[in-house]
Write a structure and sequence with these properties.
This protein is an alpha/beta fold. It has two domains: 9-151 and 303-371, 3-Layer(aba) Sandwich (D-Maltodextrin-Binding Protein, domain 2); 153-290 and 377-413, 3-Layer(aba) Sandwich (D-Maltodextrin-Binding Protein, domain 2), CATH 3.40.190.10. Helices cover 41% and strands 16% of the residues. It contains 17 helices and 15 strands. It has helices at 9-16, 53-70, 82-92, 103-111, 130-135, 158-163, 175-185, 199-208, 226-241, 255-260, 273-280, 316-326, 329-339, 349-355, 360-364, 379-389, 397-413; strands at residues 24-25, 33-34, 44-48, 74-78, 98-102, 137-138, 141-142, 145-151, 153-157, 191-195, 244-246, 264-269, 286-289, 300-309, 369-371. Strands 3, 4, 5, 8, 14 and 15 form a six-stranded mixed sheet that branches. The chain has a five-stranded mixed sheet with strand order 11-10-12-9-13. Helix 16 runs antiparallel to helix 17. The model is unreliable at 1-41 (pLDDT under 50).
Length: 415
């Protein structure tokens, strides 16, 4: 499963750390080593953080197809540590031409001038989901093409569901209904709903309550808003009741593991869970539905990354041409078929749902998905928030959010 999108701690490493160490070989079959800043004669350098051989092969095949048609040499390199190698490339003035860029690091790279703002040059710019364009815009400029994305949805163990006497009519569409079915599904050794105890999961409840950590334009911290308190109060109540639990408290590294081991009858995860279940827990039967609506309506979080192009690249036109090819409808659907990612263009939605009808809830949730915080310097604030959320069951939601508000306001005010 591709992407540097934000996942639970147990899966983030699997996304960012994959493949071989960074070894850039010159194009044209030479075995000699070269740096990402090699002359344009060596062709485009594409640096990715791959989840494994399937993703690597799919990206390499797509780049080769474009290279054959365009006549421009290009080479895909798999980073062993994408963030570190990107930072080293930028610092040296010798970055790869094209590279995966996570939503959580994008704004920092845009702010310091590392990225080319090429989004508005794309002929397909209006086909990307508007919220994804927003995620990769900085100072009013659309910087880079979203390469794929995922939303959070509710994953239900259908055997547990049936055993509890529940039917399709009982699929929860509200918070009250979610609490009721979670309680009914909770038994000795199994909790009704289990998810990661962090902002990247609890933030979905905040969105459903009408809240979020920052304002829509990213100019103000809104962590202490009443809606966010409502959301954390709701989660705390269910944690205390025992019908909700964090993955860490049931002996699992993330929601997918808890679900696969039947420590949870339901979990909240992105579409990457499908790969994990098929690989590690192939006998588990499940269905995926949209997350229930909260007091303010439907809401979820989305995770994405983009095809960054280096501001220092000497081959910007070729790089843009490559990105247009990689983000085309047909190519994104090919990536979906190869390694399960969700296309970032609206024109591919119907094709994706035709390929994966059981996963339609993930792509349908794009219409009400909220971006995660990507303010430069906010990563430490989110880390602290996650630490505080670990104690939510016995903590004070208003106090936790008040602390986040102070810290996040400081970050935004010092931009």
């Amino acid at each position: 499963m591709n992407t540097t999108r934000r996942r639970t701690r147990g899966t983030m490493a699997a996304v960012l750390v994959a493949g071989a160490a960074l070894a850039l070989a010159a194009c044209g079959g030479s075995s000699s080593s070269t740096s990402p800043s090699a002359s344009s004669a060596a062709g485009l350098k594409i640096l990715i953080g791959s989840s494994g051989d399937t993703e690597t092969t799919a990206v390499k095949d797509a780049v080769q197809a474009w290279s054959t048609t365009s006549g421009v040499a290009a080479q895909v390199v798999v980073a062993s540590d994408l963030s570190q190698e990107l930072s080293q490339g930028f610092a040296s003035g010798q970055p790869a031409d094209v590279f995966y860029t996570g939503a959580d690091s994008f704004a920092g790279y845009a702010k310091n001038g590392s990225l080319l703002a090429y989004g508005d040059k794309l002929s397909t710019k209006d086909d990307f989901y508007p919220s994804l364009v927003e995620q990769f815009s900085y100072d009013g400029q659309f910087y880079c093409a979203p390469k794929d994305f995922s939303t959070l949805a509710l994953v239900i163990n259908t055997d547990d569901w049936a055993a509890a006497g529940l039917t399709e009519a009982d699929i929860p569409t509200t918070w009250d209904q979610l609490a009721a079915v979670a309680a009914k599904l909770t038994t000795d050794g199994r909790t009704g709903l289990v998810f990661g105890g962090e902002y990247a999961r609890l933030g979905a409840f905040m969105a459903q309550a009408g809240g979020g950590l920052i304002s829509a334009d990213g100019s103000k911290a809104t962590a202490d808003a009443a809606a966010n308190v409502t959301a954390l109060d709701y989660v705390k109540t269910q944690l205390t009741a025992g019908s909700f639990a964090y993955a860490s408290t049931v002996g699992a590294g993330w929601g997918g593991e808890a679900f696969g081991k039947n420590l949870a009858a339901m979990t909240i995860e992105g579409n990457w869970i499908t790969g994990g279940l098929s690989a590690d827990y192939p006998d588990v039967k499940y269905t995926v539905v949209e997350l229930p609506a909260g007091p303010a309506g439907k809401g979820t979080l989305q995770f994405t990354n983009c095809w960054g192009i280096a501001a220092d690249s000497a081959q910007q036109d070729s790089a843009i041409s490559l990105v247009e090819y990689l983000t085309s409808t047909d190519q994104q659907l090919a990536f979906s078929k190869a390694f399960g990612v969700m296309p970032s263009v609206e024109s591919a939605a119907a094709g994706y749902k035709q390929q994966f009808p059981a996963l339609s809830a993930f792509v349908d949730s794009a219409t009400f998905a909220q971006n995660v915080v990507n303010v430069p310097g906010a990563s430490d604030v989110i880390s602290d928030f996650n630490s505080q959320l670990e104690g939510l069951a016995t903590g004070d939601p208003a106090a936790i959010l008040g602390s986040v508000q102070t810290n996040l306001k400081d970050v935004i005010d010092n931009q």
